[in-house]
Design brief:
D-amino Acid Aminotransferase, Chain A, domain 1, 6-stranded mixed beta sheet, 4-stranded antiparallel beta sheet, 9 helices, about 20% strand, ATPgrasp_TupA
């Protein structure tokens, strides 16, 4: 178990640990009080969250976000749910069919993909994995405030497949003050993982983060404009949020909403991409502030 699970929580400790983690991984001391780089902007949101933190916690929860989508009239984005479980006994007793994926509603990154046989999808080893998920407090591990106090549950969904028969690519829209400014696309997640970043006009950017950059541009997705508009609606009211979509033959489906990608400590390649993407956040936020000011003066 990681050391941060045993250290005190609260604003000071959460931010101190986050800054030290970023220093170790990035090679420079980030300044969240005067953010310039992309990672500093992410850490700045930990220092002083911009937006409704209670709503951010709700949409972080992989089950609660679906209720929220229904409330705001965006049911078409919801991935179907096979079940939400508070313990492993209920999972073991449930009768499943077909391909499915299990995730924790309160954590990040965990997933099991299985195919049910005779109604049973999960082995005894899988149930042990679920017990470890139930025991984890992702807030203590990451110090991301939106995870604090989330109910610990497992959500099971049908496994999505695109027109090629493969699990769909997820397109991750970086948004600042309700406006998308970059799109992340991952390739070969289960083979040779590479990553691309595009601007909103679908121009491939000359840097990547965390994984090697795939230099071959993708064709502009048919659903890009619809996804940009949906990202604007979902990100409204937050300083920064990454909105993830699956592009399906039937339309868009929401994957998740992430407020602290990489925990503010993802290395860029080349390194100057960190500063370049940070400038994009400032540009978008400055435009949003100007627009808000003009609207106030008109009112």
């Amino acid at each position: 178990m990681k050391l941060q699970n045993f250290l005190p929580t609260g604003h000071f400790w959460d931010n101190a640990l986050s800054i030290l983690n970023a220093r170790k991984r990035l090679g420079y001391f980030p300044n969240p009080r005067k953010p310039r780089s992309f990672n500093e902007h992410i850490l700045a949101q930990k220092w002083a969250f911009r937006g409704d933190l209670a709503l951010a916690s709700r949409v972080t929860d992989k089950a609660e976000v679906k209720k929220w989508l229904s409330e705001i009239g965006m049911e078409h984005l919801i991935v179907p749910t096979l079940g939400v479980y508070k313990n492993t006994w209920d999972i073991e007793a449930f009768h499943f069919e077909g391909e499915l994926i299990a995730k924790s509603t309160h954590g990040s990154g965990e997933a099991l993909i299985r195919t049910a046989q005779n109604g049973k999808a999960f082995s005894l080893e899988d149930l042990e994995v679920f017990r470890s998920w139930f025991s984890e407090d992702y807030y203590k591990r990451s110090r991301e405030p939106n995870y604090k106090g989330l109910s610990k549950r497992i959500i099971v969904e049908p496994l999505l497949r695109d027109e090629t028969g493969n699990p769909p690519k997820d397109f991750k829209f970086f948004c600042a003050d309700g406006e998308p400014f970059a799109v992340q696309v991952d390739h070969g997640r289960y083979t040779h993982h590479t990553r691309q970043l595009y601007d909103t006009s679908w121009q491939l950017l000359p840097y990547s983060m965390c994984y090697d950059r795939n230099p071959v541009p993708m064709r502009k997705p048919v659903l890009l404009d619809k996804a940009l508009e949906a990202a604007r609606q979902l990100s409204k009211g937050f300083g920064f949020v990454r909105v993830d979509f699956y592009f399906m033959p039937s339309g868009l489906k929401l994957g998740e909403m992430t407020f602290f990608p990489g925990n503010g400590a993802e290395r860029f390649s080349p390194a100057e991409g960190d500063a370049q993407l940070g400038r994009q956040i400032r540009k978008v936020s400055f435009t949003a502030d100007q627009t808000a000011g003009m609207q106030k003066r008109k009112a």
